[in-house]
Amino acid sequence: MQFVFLGPPGVGKGTQAAKVSEKHGVVHIATGDILRKAMAEKSPLGVKAKGYIDEGKLVPDALIIELMNDRVRQPDAKSGYILDGFPRTMGQGQAFTEALEQNGEHLDGVIYFSLDDAALVERISGRRSCPSCQSVYHMIFNRPKNDEICACGTPLIRRKDDDPETVTKRLSVYGDQTAPLIAYYKELGLLSEVDAGGDLEGVNGKVEEVLQGCSR
Ligand code: AMP
User: Fold this and answer.
1) What angle do CA 36, 37, 42 make, to 5 degrees?
2) What is the per-residue pLDDT across 2-53, written as a single tens digit (0 to 9) for each?
3) Does 34 sit in the ligand 1 pocket, CB within 6 Å?
4) What is the mean pLDDT of residues 132-139?
5) CA 200–ligand 1 middle distance (angstroms)
6) How many CB atoms lie within 10 A of CB 199?
7) Averaged over 128-146, what is the pLDDT?
8) Which positions are catalytic?
9) If you measure from the C-alpha of residue 49 to the centroid of ligand 1, how many angstroms do you get, rounded to a whole number?
10) What ranges in the chain are assigned the alpha helix state H?
11) How many A from CA of 212 to the centre of ligand 1?
12) Right CATH number for 2-116+172-214 from 3.40.50.300, 3.40.50.970, 2.60.40.10, 3.40.50.2300?
């Protein structure tokens, strides 16, 4: 199972990717999580990425493409993966298609999660993240059991790039740079659209239908 989960920030693709990963035993690879971990560790990648992330901009393609081509070759990705937050530009999408082809591989499909901007802003403003295990909660739709504490015991935070001003910037970057991938994957015959409105379980049911229909 090799899938890309595509969609705007706040649409819930990370939450769905985590559920699918758990159910099907495939690895959930989220570029945002990898970059946040690198920033926390102040690694060379983290130091380079920080300025872009804090301003709601995308990290340059060259850094991301190398990172992800290497990540999907790791042993834990052998039995399958869900990519969340990658590719995010046409350059990344095309480079990834070529890298897969060179290895005689292909994606099984791309799920595009759609939702209007007003609902996205509402979802992002209620989002709380765990800086330790990267779990994501929502104060209305997916509440932590223990007020603002993660199941792993760490106090939850609101991500710096989830503040309203940066969110507006991220939505505009998504429209300009990431949304063209919808047409790209449609053209390749890989795209399925899932309406991301409604509750987590309802959306998950639709995702599972697509996964079953696409897996070869
Ligand atoms: P996310 O957690 O997916 O919303 O990502 C948080 C931030 O990390 C984004 O706003 C970008 O600055 C950066 N980022 C994540 N994935 C990518 C990517 N594929 N290409 C470039 N920048 C990325």
Assistant:
1) 95
2) 999 999 999 999 999 999 999 999 999 999 999 999 999 999 999 999 999 9
3) no
4) 89
5) 22
6) 11
7) 90
8) 13, 88, 127, 159, 170
9) 9
10) 13-24, 31-41, 44-54, 61-71, 90-102, 117-125, 164-173, 180-187, 200-214
11) 28
12) 3.40.50.300
Residue ranges per structural domain of the chain: 2-116+172-214
160-201 pLDDT, tens digit each? 888 888 889 999 999 999 999 999 999 999 999 999 998 899
Single-letter amino acid code for the residue at 54: D
Q: Confirm if 71 and 34 have CB atoms less than 8 A apart.
A: yes
Q: Which of 5, 11, 15, 31 to mutate to test the pocket of ligand 1 (most atoms within 8 A of CB)?
A: 31
Cβ–ligand 1 distance for 162 under 6 Å, the answer no
DSSP assignment of 51-75: HHHHTTPPPPHHHHHHHHHHHTTSG
pLDDT 10s digits, 53-109: 998 899 999 999 999 999 999 999 999 999 999 999 999 999 999 999 999 999 999
22 and 80 Cβ atoms separated by less than 8 Å? no
Residue type, 211: L
For the CA of 89, the closest atom of ligand 1 is 20
Q: How far is the CA of 85 from the centre of ligand 1 (A)?
A: 6
